[in-house]
Structure formats: C-alpha cells, structure tokens
Amino acid sequence: MKTRILYISSLMAVSLFAASCKKDITERNQVFEALAPANPDSTAGAWTPILTGSSTFTLALPDAKGTPNYTADLNEIKSYQKNLTSEQKDIIKYWSAGSVLRWNEILRELVAKHNLPPYQNDDGTYPFPSAANPLAYPLFPFSNPPYAARAYAYVSAAQYDALVQTFKFKYTSGYRREAPYANDANVQALVPKSKLPSYPSEDAAVAGATAQMMILLFPGDLDYIQKKVAEEKLYRLMAGANTRSDWDAGENLGKQVANVFLARARADKANLAAGAKDDWTKLETDAKAAGNTPWISLELPHRPPMLPLFPKVTPILMPAADVVAIRPAAPFKEGSAEYQKDMDEVMAMSKNYDRDHERIVAFWADGVGTATPPGHWNSIAAEEFVKHNWSEVRWARNMALLNMAEMDAAIVCWDTKYFYFNPRPTQMVAGIKTLTGIPNFPSYISGHATFSGAAATVLGYLVPERATEFMTMANEAGMSRLYGAIHYRNDCTVGLATGVKVGTYAVNRAKTDGAN
C-alpha cells in the first residue's frame, strides 16, 4: 500500500509585516491508494454520537429501481463515464483516498492560510479580525492554536455524528439501496466496491456537515469550500459509487447534523475569547497583587495577549468544572532554587545550541503560517491512520477523539496560562537568544507540551502498539520549547502531564462509544 509522505512545516522565517499580508491556500494533494476498508463497520449506526444522540432527522425514501428518476440518475453516471478527461480521472484518484482524510487536509490548509497575526495600526494599536466582515483586513479568522484546535474539533465531531446518522438510515427498512454499479451492469465501479447501501451517501454526509462548519469558521472562504464540495460530488458520480439522489440525501443529512453543532459553536463563548483592555489589565493587576512579575508582550508596541478569555469556552469532552479541577499547581516562585535551576538551564540552552536541538525545534515549530501544533498532530494521525485501512466512519470517530482532546487541551492550557500569568524566560533575562519565535501569551504551561500530551494519549489508545513512540514524540515536542529557549523545563513537563490528563477524557469516551 502507498502511504502518505508526511508533510511537516519547517521553521518559517516570516517577518511580522509579511505575516500580515494575504496568504493563499496551498493544496498539497498527497497521493494515496483508494480507500478499501477491510471492515466496513456496517453496525456504526449503533455507535454513540457526540451531540446528536437525542436528535431526530428526516430523510426522503429513495426512488426504487426501475423508476424514471432512478433510471435518469444511472444514465447521468454513464454519460460521465463515457468520456472521462484526465482532469476528471485525477479528481477520482484524489477523493477516493477518503472523504475524512481529504477534508482534514483541506482544513489544515485553511488554518495555515489564516494563521497570520495582524500587523499594527499606525497609532500602535492592533486591529482584530471580525466575523461580521471576514474579507476586510485583518482577515477573519486569525487561526492561532486555540482557534485552530476548536475548528478541528467541531469539524471532526460533526463528521463523525453525520456518519453515525448516515449508517442508521442506510440500514433502515426502505432505505437499503445498493450502489449504482450493483444495479446496472453498464455502470463501472471506478473505486473499490463496497457492500454498504449507497443511500444516503456517506461522502455526501461528510461533505454536507463539513462545509457548514467550515463556512462558520472560515466565512471568507465560502467559494473555495463550496468548490471542494462540488468536486467531491462529481467524483462520486463519475466513479459510479453514488447517484445524484444518493448524494443529495447524504448532503441534506450532513447539513441537518451540522445544525446541531453550529448551535453549540455559536453558544460556546469562543466569540468572547479575545477579551478587552480591562480584562488584560486585571490579569496584570492580579499577578502583581500575588507578588509575581506579570507577563508582558515582548512585541513593540505591546500586542494584546492571545485569547485571554479562551478558558471560558465550553469544553466538548469534559465538564466545565474540570478545567479548574485539573489546573496544575503554580509554577516555581521567582527566586526559589527550583526557579533558578530552570532559568540557568534556559540560559545554557541559549548559549550552546547543538544540531539535534536545532532540528527538533525546527520540526516542532508550528508557528505563523502553519497548521499549528494541533494541526501537526492531525498530520501525524493521518500518516498513521492510512496504514490501518479503516472505514470512513472509523476514520471520523478517531479524528473526532483526537481533536476533541485538542480543543479541551487548549482550554485547560489557556486557563493555566492566564490564571498564573507567568512571564517567559526572555522577559526575565534580556539577551536570551531563541531558536524560534516567542508566542504572545504567558509561559506556564507550554501549549506545545499540553497539545502533544493529549494527542499522544489518544493516539496511543487507538494504536496501542505505537503508544510509547507517540509519547516519546510528545515529550520531544514539549522539550523543543526549552531547546528553543522560550520555555522553562517546568512549563514543558507539567504541560505534558496536563495534556495526558485531558487526553484521558477522550480515551474514556472511546471505551464506551460502541466502536470497539
């Protein structure tokens, strides 16, 4: 089997001015074999959905074989297959790798496109992206790590629920219609044949749910998102895998499922995460009152802190109260022996970089213009999942578990960061040379370490034979921030341990969702 060559963004030397400019979507279109799962997971309709367990959805019954409408659908497929162009064959090859896989790639591309901090105004203030006017500068959104983690979670979770609901209909009496190639000998199967009923289309359900979520998250990219939906629809028809009515039913169902997730996303308080000047001032005042040095932005002019109210966002896996319950203990106190030991280590790292540390820092940098640390772990997951020949619905379930953990990791990490408001080593000692950019938010705990601990915990459960490897990678990701001299060791080790705790919520869900 061909496996994907993992694309990892290298350390980018991007000036702040360049970062403020428009960035286009870069499609990488890695080559994979067509998805042909060993186990189609035909019982997935009984798996536990994330948000739609009590929802009721409606779907028209399919036209019966031999009816004029169904005959017209079959004839449409045959007209496409009569003279496929090379471009159309490429579309089939691209999408046949799997809907969840391809939409995950597209989402990473959108995140990378929008992961650009706005440049300052002439008066030294900074503009904020506006969802109400997404095409005005600065473009909405600024898909920084917390925003990206939330985006990955909502898209993946909606895809999973859409497929669970799709499988329920597939095996409901009256809906069990076979694929076009099974109903007409003149329809070619240009993708591996499936024994799953084709109505409603699983690809269409994924596309319908995904597009609705992406349009909320990246409203300025509506045309691009709709173009990809139309392309996937054309693929299913040209490949003989679905009729137009199969697709339309699946897309309709996916949109119904998305509406449940859209309602949650609009009410989860993420729109308030940027806070206001009074919020930033209070954080500084509280830190001083506790006898600590408050974090300050090292950019000139000082940039407002990144999403200080993101801790108020409603978690998707854990109860909101648990965000505070698993908040780690305070960082080492300035002047303590533990603090000085960590600071001395950062200073030593700053003065004596070695090639291996430089490689690790570059590999895990995930800064401006990249898919962010959660996106990096999505790349790692996709690289791994391709090897297992899983069904579309299992892909969706596993990506949802990963990304829900990443969203909650962002909330827990940002809660810790802004509760303690701890300065970075580069604020405390002038002249520290770093190997990577200094993020515009407090030091304790490391976001990279927290995201990575959560991801490795989930992936280790899903692929137990590689659990140790994934955790070693997570530790390396966290330590890369020490090697780059932008975090203390304690930020990294505590962040990793906290991420593991968050990942355990996803593992506990996986153990009871019926997929095993």
TrEMBL record:
SUPFAM superfamilies assigned to the protein according to its UniProt record, in alphabetical order: Acid phosphatase/Vanadium-dependent haloperoxidase
Keyword annotations for this protein, in alphabetical order, are:
Signal
Phosphatidic acid phosphatase type 2/haloperoxidase domain segment(s): 399-507
Q: Which domain of life is it from?
A: Bacteria
Please verify whether the record's keywords include Signal: yes
According to the UniProt entry, where is the signal peptide? 1-18
Q: What is this protein called?
A: Phosphatase PAP2 family protein
